[in-house]
Specification:
With 126 residues, this protein is mostly helical. The chain has one domain. It is 71% helix and 0% strand. Helix 1 packs across helix 3.
Amino acid sequence: MAKKKSSLMFTYIGVIRKADDVETIILDEIMRKFQSGKRYLRERIFEGKSRKEAVDMAKPLFINNSRYMRDAFLEAEASISSQKELLPTYIQQNQLKVAALNEQITKLTNSKKKNKEGKIKYKHSK
């Protein structure tokens, strides 16, 4: 089996100034397809597909460019891993909110305010 030649990959970062309507439409279309490809690849990750399989499935649907689809796959993986890392923080924040609401409910039940039943029902609905 022949060895695969190593190829250099260049990325040029630029700024678009005074783009006409056609260029703006083309750029918007590429960005829309990239984001759609990223969402599609995230779902393929959840299904347990490998990167190669998922990219091969996404290329004909969105952008027929391996590099764009690989980048979309990597961004989808990164967003999933970041959500997993932040999950304990979200749980802790929600537990604090629940504790604060319970404290407000107990204060309302012990108070002598009028219409406290309506307020307690409102707090329970949150």
